[in-house]
Please model this.
Amino acid sequence: MAIEDRDNVHVITHALARDTLSTLRDTSTAQVSFRKGLVKLGRVCGYEIIDGAMETEYVPVTTPLTEITGERLTGLDDVVIINVLRAATPFVEGLLKAFPSARQGIISAGRDEQAGMDEDGTFPISIDYVKLPDINPEDTVIVADPMLATGSTMCAVLEEVLDNQPDPENLFVLSAVSAPDGVLRVDEAVPTATLLTVALDDHLDEDGYIVPGLGDAGDRAFGTD
Ligand code: URA
Model:
């Protein structure tokens, strides 16, 4: 099925997200502005998740002038954000502005080049570090990685998350930029996940970089190469 026809794949179209992503893509954006851009994008994406997925309840509110019925978000205390090291760190910093009471998990995963290439030409993923809070069935879980490229790392990360809690209320895979291969792979591996991305890019190059993409998000955010 084409990506556009999948119900659980959504492109975040907020104008501030599109504006910020253009800054991130621009090669003239230096490290500090890049990192701040990822923080800003995380915040906007967090607000979009609140708008699309969180419920509100009616509550009485007393204004200085009268009594009205106001609305309060419910579920903000049942949010878990998973930081897929390392590029997600500034992205998660922004998400935390939208979900200040979220519990946080950290997963470090990477290509295991020593294990040799798999038959499909990709390297297996080694999970180097996992620290997750207890995830409850009523939780909204947001797994954040700014770049969804081949999807191999994300699939390995999701296995860890689902081992902890197989059926969270909401499971979001959030990225800034996605490649079609990654979206299809994650969607097929974990159909219960909702994939959110600010841009669905064209393809992966032979080194696994997303094109047009924004380069190596971790290196650009942390000033390494
Ligand atoms: N990771 C990145 O940082 N950039 C890509 O283009 C792909 C994976």
In short: DSSP finds six helices and twelve strands in the chain. Residues 3-56+74-222 form a domain with the Rossmann fold fold (CATH 3.40.50.2020). Residues 87, 147, 149, 208-210, 213, 216-218 surround uracil (CB under 6 Å).
